[in-house]
Design brief:
Blueprint: E1 5-11, H1 15-25, E2 33-40, E3 43-50, H2 53-61, E4 69-75, E5 90-91, E6 97-105, H3 108-119, H4 130-139, H5 144-154, E7 157-165, E8 168-177, E9 182-185, E10 189-193, E11 205-208, E12 214-218, E13 221-225, E14 231-232, E15 237-238, H6 254-260, H7 262-271, H8 289-293, E16 297-302, H9 304-321, E17 325-329, H10 330-333, E18 344-350, H11 356-367, E19 371-376, H12 382-386, E20 389-392, H13 405-425, H14 430-441, H15 443-451, H16 454-464, E21 469-474, H17 477-493, E22 496-501, E23 518-523, H18 529-540, E24 545-551, H19 555-560, E25 563-567, H20 575-593
Parallel strand pairs: 16-17, 16-18, 18-19, 19-20, 21-22, 21-23, 23-24, 24-25
Antiparallel strand pairs: 1-4, 1-10, 2-3, 2-4, 5-6, 6-7, 7-8, 8-12, 9-10, 9-11, 11-15, 12-13, 13-14
The structure holds 5-amino-5-deoxy-1-O-phosphono-D-mannitol (M6R).
Amino acid sequence: MTMCGIVGYVGNNSAKDMIIDGLKSLEYRGYDSAGIALNAKGKIIVRKESGVIANLEKKIGKQDFDGNLGIGHTRWATHGSPIRENAHPHLSADGRIAIVHNGIIENYLELKAQLKKNHRIEFKSETDSEVIAHLIGAHYKGDLVEAVRKAVERMRGAYAVGAIAADEPDKIVAVRKDAPLIAGIGQDSNYLASDIPALLKYTRDIYLIENDEIVIITADDIKIYDEDMTRVRREVMHVTWDAAAAEKGGYEHFMKKEICEQPEGIRETLERRLDDRGDIKLDGVELTKKELDAIDRIYIVACGTASHAGMQGKALIERFAGIPTETDLASEFRYRNPLVNERTLFLCISQSGETLDTLEALREAKRKGARVLSICNVVGSSVARESDDVFYTWAGPEIAVASTKAYTTQLVCLYLIALYMGRERGVLPESEYRRMIEELRALPQKAEETLKTENQIRELAERFCIKEQIFYIGRGQDVGTAYEASLKLKEVSYINSFAIAAGELKHGTIALIRKQTLFFVLASQDALYEKMLSNIEEIKARSAHVVSIAKKGNRRIAKVSDETIFIPQCADEVAPILAVIPLQLLAYHIAKLKKRNIDKPRNLAKSVTVE
Ligand code: M6R
């Protein structure tokens, strides 16, 4: 398995309380069961429950046991259904070792067969993770570190593992490969976790654990070793996030909070890179004219929402910097032997920085000699660490599974990179550069103004939440926005939706139009305005219902559409940032009316660390 959360505690206080608390802080990641293992007076006690963490809390709250050391886990099922038996922690055959695991053990079937044959082990779950507990158990001779190292030698795949042993009540041993893991530094207490929010209430000082490292955590020390057991000195990272930023701040849902935080996110992402003269600073990323002239192709690679940002990035880089740019889905890129070499710039976009498909595509590009520049929202994430250069979005933590503020801040980063490249290469006229900087600087305030469409959107949502399918169309940069709007609606409302380049309609999809079929028509591109009017006529002639999204002042569109949502006047190039906002709100309000689990939609998790 899995996309899941890990928490560990060793110290002088109640391990039970800290671990439950830490797991709750990771609820946003999406999970379907949870469990805890404590070392209570030399005995390992495990409790697990399916469903919400409150179920587990209720179960153990009444029970009179605790300890000063333990590990906990939230599971999101991949191998085996979301039942209690499959929840972590898993125990070794003699019940004296417990583990939690994030990732996937690719050779688990082979290991399982060997463990059954050689050690007569009976497996209690359907998970891949249980093999880890048995492997460590099979190698355990009183030294947990040694047993974990031997087990790891046999494991293939991705993992962050936390392990405890009944006979070593003073330590947690953890190891990582391609799955996030951190150690938190406390006072007379230390911590283990997969994600920073789990520890924010306890400490802001952490160590980022790297691939193939093993960490030994005791109440008064954290020791990190490389795979040869050479001690590694790691700098302490101080987390500056505001704890409140990881909470809902008065909003009913994180998704709504994050939609409303966009003006601020856009401002932060922009202003940190623009000086008083309007010159762009790329956070120390060196992209000189010589280096840029040596690049003959850019690949923008990402998944989901980030890939829609990538579609906009292609248009921007080609338009402003004149460098041929391709976009690809990370899951496709890695299997198609792409034409990548030392003259390629690989531009990777990921909110979480932990998406496995994106990471593997990045590694493939690096193997082939490309330089890797990433746009990422999570400091210290795997993508950030494995890239040659990182350009961070300053969106703050994004908790809702549906990405909103990460998307618009990714777009801001792409504008900055494209404009910088164009100017540095000398292909972008200075007047054009200046005009775009003015347009960008006006965006936070225009995003505020766009959020005021909410009343109109709420009313549309009330009428349209009964629809079984919704279409989104656009041309040019509006195509990416249509894709993003459609994905947003699908993931939070579960309504079937479809996004298509407007010019493609007549080549097949038009056959689906019936009376009252609902179309959201994106017409934010002045250069393509007339073409969009023709598309509206085309679908209206078939009795569809048309809601257009256009810039203020475009009266003709209001005449031909059934209704129109107006966004502020702006240059075509920056319109995608504004045009997506009403459609994020639409997805949110429809999902709310349909009483969906908005922040954690079914079957989805925040970071997809599996293939
Ligand atoms: O963390 P990443 O940006 O790499 O995630 C990529 C996608 O999994 C993500 O954008 C997903 O599509 C979102 N749930 C969309 O809202």
